[in-house]
Amino acid sequence: MFRKCGLPSAAHLNRVGAISSIININDPGPKLYSAIAVGHDLIEDMLYKAVDEFGVHYGFDRYDEFIHKFIPEELREGIAILTNHYDLIIKYVIEFLDERGVGINNGTILYALETLMTSEHQLLSKYAGRTLEVLKRITR
Fold first, then answer.
1. Is the torsion defined by CA of 117, 122, 126, 127 positive or negative?
2. The pLDDT of residue 42
């Protein structure tokens, strides 16, 4: 798996973890900051690629299940802070519109975001709300 810049994902994660250790931003003891740095792209990179024991992809609808299965509890908050949730929002909107066979325009994007805001994804609905506010301001 490669990042958009062409760098292998494993190289990026190792570099970030090593840098956090080298510049000594770790907490004393368990070195959680390095672990969080290594895992900072895990959700973005793997949510749509990981499969369960039955070969079914996790994807957006199984976001919470993915988090609980693959991210240790002590790392979840830190990784969530560093995750680019707006990237996940864009993927959600595209998936939402594709499933309904609807084209992309201002109205359908706003509708997809409003739907996400009413979903059970508390963290993602927060980011959807922020995105919706920005889009409503620029589409007036």
1. negative
2. 81
Q: Are 74 and 118 within one domain?
A: no
What pLDDT score was predicted for residue 19? 64
CATH number of the CATH domain containing 111? 1.20.5
Residue 79, both tokens: 């990784």
Residue 101's alpha-carbon distances to 66, 72, 77, 104, 108, in angstroms, are 27, 37, 35, 10, 11
Does the pLDDT of residue 27 top 60, yes or no? no
Are 19 and 41 in a shared domain? yes
| Best CA proximity match to 113, nearest among 133, 137, 85 | 133
- 12 pLDDT band (50/70/90 cuts)? low
- The answer to whether 114 touches 132, Cβ cutoff 8 Å, is yes
Q: How far apart are CA 26 and CA 135, in angstroms?
A: 38
Domain extent, residue 65, equals 9-82
